[in-house]
Specification:
The chain is an alpha+beta fold and 489 residues long. The chain has 13 helices and twelve strands. The chain has three domains: 111 residues, 2-Layer Sandwich (Beta-Lactamase), CATH 3.30.450; 122 residues; 172 residues, 2-Layer Sandwich (Heat Shock Protein 90), CATH 3.30.565. Strands 2-1-5-4-3 form a five-stranded antiparallel beta sheet, with helices on both faces. Helix 6 packs antiparallel against helix 8, helix 9 packs across helix 11 and helix 11 runs antiparallel to helix 13. Bound molecules: adenosine-5'-triphosphate and magnesium ion. The site of adenosine-5'-triphosphate (ATP) has 24 residues, from helix 11 and helix 13.
Length: 489
Amino acid sequence: MSNQSPDEEIEFLRQRVAELEKALEQKNQLQQELEEYKQINTELEKQLQKTEEQSYLYKMIIDKAIDWIFVKDKNYRYLLVNDTVAHSLGKTSEEMIGKDDVEINLPTEIVFGNPDKKIRGFRQDDQLVIAGETIHNHYDPIPCCDGSFYILDTKKIPLSNSKGEIFALLGVARDITDRHQAETELKASETKLRQRTLELEQTLQQLRRTQSQLIHSEKMSSLGQLVAGVAHEINNPINFIYGNLIHANKNLQDLLKLLSLYQKNYPDSTPEILEQNQIIELEFLQADLPKLICSMQVGAERIRQIVDSLRTFSRLDQASLKYVDIHEGIDSALMILEHRLHHENNYLPITVIKKYSNLPLIECYAGHLNQVFMNILVNAIDALEGIGIQNSTSEIPNPQISITTKIVNPQEIIIHIGDNGLGMSEEVRQRIFDPFYTTKPVGKGTGLGLSISHQIVTEQHRGSLNCISSIGKGSKFVIKIPIHQQNAD
Ligand SMILES: Nc1ncnc2c1ncn2[C@@H]1O[C@H](COP(=O)(O)OP(=O)(O)OP(=O)(O)O)[C@@H](O)[C@H]1O
Ligand SMILES: [Mg+2]
């Protein structure tokens, strides 16, 4: 038995009960808290699962994106790469994470650049982005695992933490290799097309030149035939006149001598004779007739020279390569142009200064070459008359054409034909050999003279035809041709 009093025992029991009640209360409270913790835990587990699902989704999205996506830290080491990057470089993302571009074995020139090959290197871009810039590089070549190159269009942006400090860079790059290749091919085919167009244009131009030359040479050959025909027709009667003039002169002298003998031996003539004497003014007649015959002889001589020149000029017998005297050709052209060199009125006479060297015979197509001299001489006369020259109002005070011939070397001769006309501007000078280029009024110039002459000299005779000219300083045409054609190669 206890030695406590009943009251004490009751008190003790009351206290125990109170303690048990408190403990029970605490237990209930703990149970409640446990319930709450369990709920929170379930909630957290749910959230964790959701977060895991979401991050898996994000990773999937990033990995499956067709663009290259990567994140590099401040030391340019990969923090993230998507599958597109890893596969394209023939690696796994695990092999790349934590390494920089050199460590994943990209060529150093691609990383650090190579000015000789015009490769910029993307480390330079990375540095700028880590320093805070956003970079958009439209042409970013990267080598791929099979040795070929990707061309990327890359955008890189800095990534900052909550304090605004840059800790990494995000790169998003689009593979534009196909587009770039298509563009390159397009450019190449455009260039090819342009080249082809140019070739076609040149062929067309060549055809036009050939056509115009054909027309022109056809015209010249008809003209040549006509000239040769006319010259031939005139040649016979003029020879006839010229030949008979000598006899006519001799006969006339005889007759005049006989007449003076009559006058001397029979001074007392009949009134009828005296009257007739006065009517015909016998004394004047006696003095004038020899002069008349003489001037007829000069005229006939001139006609003979012209006929000769026409024949030399047309040179129908020399349509093939032959050795000829070039000076004869120039002189025949000058003879034909005589009427323009010495105008009766309108223009001052043009002086022709000839400085001919002792040239050998030149192997050439004489008819064609004469045509060249003719074209250049006509142009010179036109220039001295101010035809087709812009702003030409003043007359040339002392119009001159100078012709010089020289041997340059044992194989070549040179012919200078110059005038002291108003010359031409550089713009005109550069175009004078173009077919159909003329500054002359419609009907006066076809613009073919020099283009055909150029062709005759350069293509037919393997020579050169150049022009030196400037405004106010006249013009000089320089013709260089080989002495021999057939063995010139
Ligand atoms: N001696 C020159 N002085 C100044 N300009 C000249 C001279 N020779 C040629 N030219 C310029 O060159 C252009 C072309 O000459 P080209 O002989 O080819 O044609 P064109 O004389 O105009 O016509 P055509 O077909 O009748 O000869 C002339 O229109 C003229 O402007
Ligand atoms: Mg001309």
